[in-house]
């Protein structure tokens, strides 16, 4: 009995005064719910804002990565000034050229050239605010031959690197292009080392100036296999932002007659051949720009070059070994009055053949330009490069180029060619 009593006493029972009040509990619950709702109301806009900023930053990054380039060369030798209508169509503008001097230094020394670059800078300030990059091409048609001896001489090489840095200080540019026409087999390593060392210098300049964005660096190559084969592309791609694939070459045009920049056709070296080779070899179509010339060429004392039955697009130049440039503005001259323009279906290019004068002319028109841009889109090429924007006097050619959508909607390095 005593055991039972002891057990009963060990059971703790709450009396009425010690039991929790339902009313008090409900009050606390409501208080907690109210606090939670207040936190949700206050935090929701902040969470939404942070999420929006995060998504926006990701979209901006993707847009920057996926943005197709429209690069325009601006020459020292033309007279036409830039217009805002032209500039708003570009992502990059490249001034040609800063010449390589005998001592290895590079500069823009000719008074006309200096005026041209300052005329350019006067009008580009608004376009730069919208993100357009300004660059200078170093080298060029006449002084590229000075690259090899400059790189072999330590003093000249020091002059080269210091003067490249001076271009940034003097002209407040965003980048440079190494416009080397064309490295030989013996120059392959020199070319690679130059690109690598220039990138290292640009990185040091960026850090010393406290800049957040890298300076832009680009190089050129050619659609002609015997010119393009002396570049270490996969190593170069580690250091450059893009490669401009020029689809014309003066040395070729002085020796041969045929379409200036054929999209397809011939036994080799069409634009399609070059872009497929470079894409399949590098696996980086996003770093390639397809070159589009805006000038035309005509040859005299020649035979008709095109023969589809023989897969022939060109013939050796006979008579005077001279190719004459023709501008869009020259269409009003007597030579071009009342002439019929023909279209070559295989190369996708227009031409003029005057049999009585034995004159053949190759050029671009709105149709061929649109097809080249569409080709770049279909094959997910990173952009186009226009040679040159100041050769388009009435802005019709640039308008044709930019009227075609470049964005493909694909991932930046999706490969559209059937690579072997």
Automatic annotation (TrEMBL):
Q: Where is the signal peptide?
A: none
Q: PROSITE patterns in the record, alphabetically?
A: GH18_2
Bias class Low complexity marks the residues at 1-17
For this protein, the parts annotated as crossing the membrane are 32-55
Gene3D superfamilies xrefs: 3.10.50.10, Glycosidases (3.20.20.80)
State the Gene Ontology BP annotations: carbohydrate metabolic process
Question: What Pfam families does the database record attribute to this sequence?
Answer: Glyco_hydro_18
Q: Which InterPro entries match?
A: Chitinase_II/V-like_cat (IPR011583), Chitinase_insertion_sf (IPR029070), GH (IPR017853), Glyco_hydro18_cat (IPR001223)
Protein origin, superkingdom? Eukaryota
Q: Where is this region: Disordered?
A: 1-25
GO terms of molecular function: chitin binding
Q: Does the keyword Lipid biosynthesis apply?
A: no
Q: Boundaries of each GH18 domain copy?
A: 68-408
Keyword entries, A-Z: Membrane, Transmembrane, Transmembrane helix
Q: Which SMART domains match?
A: Glyco_18
Under PANTHER family, the record lists:
CHITINASE, GH18 DOMAIN-CONTAINING PROTEIN
Descriptive protein name: GH18 domain-containing protein
Lineage runs: Eukaryota, Metazoa, Ecdysozoa, Nematoda, Chromadorea
